[in-house]
Amino acid sequence: MRGKSGRLGRTGRRGRLLGVRSVAGQVLLLQVVVALVLIVAAVLALSFQARYDSERDAQNRSRAAAETFADAPGTLAALRSADPARTLQRHTVDAWHGSGVDFVAVMTTDGTRIADSDPNLVGTHAQGVQEAARGRTVTEIFAGTPHDAARAVVPVMDDRGRVVGLVSAGVSIENVGDAAARQLPLFLGAGAVALALATASAALVSRRLRRQTRGLGPAEMTRMYEHHDAVLHAVREGVLIVGDDGRLTLANDEARRLLDLPADAEGRHVTDLGLAGDTAELLASGRPVTDEVHLAGDRLLAVNTRPTDPFGGPSGTVATLRDTTELRAVTGVAAVARERLTLLYEAGVRIGTTLDVTRTARELSEVAVPRFADFVTVELLDPVLRGEEPTEVHTVMRRAAVSGVRDDHPLQPVGDLIRFDVPTTPMAAALARGEAVLEADLTVAHGWREQDPAGADVALAYGIRSLVSVPLQARGVVLGMANFWRSAPSERFEDEDVAFAEELAARAAVAVDNARRYTREHAMAVTLQRSLLPRVLPEQDALETAYRYLPAQAGVGGDWFDVIPLPGARVALVVGDVVGHGLHAAATMGRLRTAVHNFSALDLPPDELLGHLDELVSRIDEEEAEDTGAGITGATCLYAVYDPVTGDCCMATAGHFAPAVVRPDGSVDFPDVPVFPPLGLGGGPFETYEVRLPEGSRLALYTDGLVEHRQRDLDAGLRLLRDTLAEAPGRTPEETCRAVFDAMLPPHRGDDIALLVARTRLLPPDRVADWDVPPDPSAVAPVRAACVRQLERWGLDEIGFTTELVLSELITNAIRYGSAPIHVRMLRDRNLICEVSDGSSTSPHLRRAATTDEGGRGLFLVSRLAGRWGTRYTPSGKVMWTEQSLTGGPAPLEVPALFDDAAW
């Protein structure tokens, strides 16, 4: 009976819960009613919408049928015929059957039916056609004879736009209603399904609500409150509830005991209860905390606070208090461990921010002071400071960093040599063992005192009393030593501190080793790069030059420049850039610079030289792509040739910036040099740009690192360069370089910067002499005599005989093997330059001559008599040139009869 009554009781309770008096039952009923109303409204709306859509569809169908019939080619002709009724009746019936509408009629303009799908209506009068008779198409829901319908009336017009008849088509309203009625079951079915789903969901919600209330009535709720109150006061953890006004609402017995609350505490503000200031402030603020430790008398309380709003209670704060006095010692240890972990994390972030060895050592010393040690000294081996591999001799190191809580410490300064000769010192012992050594009390550390007795006495008098020495090791190799010192009144180091010091030193050692490796690679790259760049600019009179070069701070790159003297007193100016940094970029720059020197020795025009350089870079790319999978990612070059005789400057560029030209009046412009892709991309053939420069003009050649960086875009950099160059027209190249660098040098160089400034000079006219030579052997002697006289005017009698022999051979060969016009020019520069040009492009060369040959040694004589000689080609032929010292005599002639210049 008891079991049965229990089941009956549960059944009765469930019935009450779902009844209208229970919250769950009321919620269920309300949700079902709302769902029913919404579904009925939706079904009605859909029904009306379906009716409306059916009527619109019927009107559209009617209009389409009427317009089709009215626009048919025979309709207008039939209306004009003598008997339109007989002609149109058959077509009207056919249109009725084919269009799917309920009727089709053809009417006169007054509405009289001429033809109709229903023959019985022929001759009757249609209503409401007046608008159509005026020429407008009418679509409407029509109520009238013979029945209501969705009707369209379309006028039939002749060629002059007059209405000659009307065509009407329509669908009866009964059929429209039938179409809407056919959709009604679907709507009702959907509504029924929606009602079922809404009822089911409402039942689920009510069931969940029933589970949450657990079916408790008022009596049960009262008992539950009493039980909770008993538990609240019996639990051995303090519980407080504070209202949003800061007044205490509830406090259990344990909270009263822990906080020593007065009997009338409830209802009073927490700041009036005699609590500690931080505890009262926390309870009044409502700030949520977790295990925040507070001192209450001689007790250490762990306080947790949470707002009561999210749990449905009145606005306020609930706080729990737990007595953790016995855990005070454990808490102190945990706090120290947490502090050490935080310090190790900061060390990982702060040590090694740069790739500088000295800076990394200083970061290690700074991160440990003052939270671990009062003073920190870091010593490194000299090879490590230079970026080299460390040696095995560890007895001598150089102090790299010192940090401390005070600046007046007695420790040796940065830069001093530190010796560890006595093996019993903590430093020597740590190096020998490869692990940290602790000297908790330096007053009894006899080994430490033995190394430097005077220094030890000064340190002890200062207050230093404890030391941990740790070797800095990476990859099993000793790099240096870190010493952590503590002075009074700080506590002495203990055994627990040794492991932390080793961990800190290990992280710093890795950063030091990375910086050492970078320093070594950077030094190698800088050395290689500087060895490949010109150390001094060559002497020449055509240009006054000055330059500046700065490698990138993060690693050397591939920027380069050059000044190359050319035959005929001309000078080539070169500036280029290889994309990238490091050894590869520096080595590639050296290869390209050497190639430019070799190509310039052939005296090629700028466009041809860049074409050869482009082919070379393409070959390098192919070779390196096969070996490493990556070639030169980009290289640019600007090559310019200046002639001091004419003042002409011709230049060509492969992806590089055009130079800035500063005129003597101070105006600055950037020539429109034809732009071509960088080298190696097959951008040729290149084009040459020529400009004539007045004497005193300045050319500024530069790389992109000067005008473009992260804080300044290219356009702004070019404007700043233009303004800087225009400031003082009379500046020398050296002053120009200084002014440009002062104004434009970025705060952090992410790329190399190269700047080459050249001021033009012109060769005076009295130092140039030239003659036209007829293509007749008899003209050699007069020209030769004129040249000798010119040398006498220049005061060069000493080299007259040699020059006469050289010109005689060159002119004779030009007449014999070349073609007109033949021209001779002499230039008095640092050397005497003789040039013989002709219209032939045949290249002369040395060849072997037999002992019995009568000729064939002329060019060999020229090569022996002149300091330098060669050939350059022009658009109209070639130029043979020689250079001779202004003071030297002819070279001794020892002709072994081996070579000749017969091939031209």
Give an account of the 3D structure.
With 904 residues, the protein is an alpha+beta fold. The strands form 7 sheets. It has a 6-stranded antiparallel sheet, sandwiched between helices. Helix 2 (23-70) runs antiparallel to helix 6 (173-213), helix 11 runs antiparallel to helix 16 (495-532) and helix 17 (583-601) runs antiparallel to helix 18. The longest helix is centred in the first third of the chain and has 48 residues, at 23-70. 34% of the residues are buried. Keywords: ATP-binding, Cell membrane, Hydrolase, Kinase, Membrane, Nucleotide-binding, Phosphoprotein, Transferase, Transmembrane, Transmembrane helix, Two-component regulatory system. The chain crosses the membrane at residues 23-48, 184-205. It is a multi-pass membrane protein.
Strand content: 15-25%
The number of helical elements comes to 24
Determine the structural class based on helices, strands and strand pairing: alpha+beta
Using only CA atoms, what is the Rg?
A: 53 Å
Largest sheet: 6 strands, antiparallel
Low confidence ranges: 1-21, 850-854, 889-904
Relative helix content? 40-55%
* Oligomer description: single chain
Average pLDDT for all residues: 80
Q: Which strands sit side by side, in order, in the main sheet?
A: 13-12-11-16-15-14
Distance between the termini: 136 Å
Backbone shape: flat
